Amino acid sequence: HWPVFLLTGIPGQEDVYLWISIPFCLTYVISIVGNSVILFIIKTDPSLHEPMYIFLSMLAITDLSLSIATIPTILGIYLFNSREISLNACFTQLFFIHSLSFIESSVLLLMAFDRFVAICNPLRYASILTLPRIAKMGLVFVLRGLAVVFPSPFLLKRFHYCRANVLFHSYCLHQEVMNMACSDITVNSIYGLFIIVSTVGLDSLLILLSYVMILKTVLSIASHAKRARALNTCVSHLCAVLLFYTPMIGLSVIYRFGKGSSPLLQILLGYIYLLVPPLMNPMVFS
Description:
The chain crosses the membrane at residues 16-42, 54-79, 91-113, 134-156, 190-214, 235-258, 264-285. The chain is mostly helical. The protein has one domain (4-285): Rhopdopsin 7-helix transmembrane proteins, CATH 1.20.1070.10. Helices cover 77% and strands 2% of the residues. The protein has helices at residues 17-44, 51-80, 87-120, 125-128, 131-149, 151-157, 174-179, 186-219, 224-257, 263-285; strands spanning 4-6, 84-86. The protein has a two-stranded antiparallel sheet with strand order 1-2. The N and C termini lie far apart (49 Å).
């Protein structure tokens, strides 16, 4: 049983890790400052205390938390060449990374719902999206994100790890840690697939559905200018959806089916999946 896992940076580039750390540090600084500024502006400006901006602040909080969850290990490798992570620390990190990813997926769904009500049912917007209802929806999705991932660390803990203890990324992911085990991982594999389908799969399907309804409504508007204005309010949300789901789905597909794919591609997709949405969302929505 390995007492520690070894994390990997970018293989073969060890002598330039200090230089590689510069863009990572910049990414973190911009992500943290950008999301904090959004939260500060929304909190201090009473005219922004509306459903659309409350959902945006939920997204900013999730992005901030996601950045903080990966900072210790990614910067630890590139700045201090510290590759070791204890099993418990690894399980804790993967719990936060996965649950925050699912919460982000839920927030994007709530934002799609917000746009759907605003465009398809504008007269009832204020009565449908009341503050108590938004708070309840937010709480339900946060609890869902935490609850579905909660069993994962415990399921991983009962395994015996005897294969090479080197992980592929600079942080811990469930699929990867699971593949290190010598025990039978069928239960974990099925559970992992169930989580993905019941959270990200369901959310993306509902987002797609809400956009189909939005398009239907927009195309029935006679005025071209009004049509453009209605669609314009969805552009930033659509960008955020693409930024989040594209690398996430890509990474899942590579893990399950792309056994012969280039390791560098997996590493790169892994960084894009965790670092790009928190970096880009503040810019997109600003």
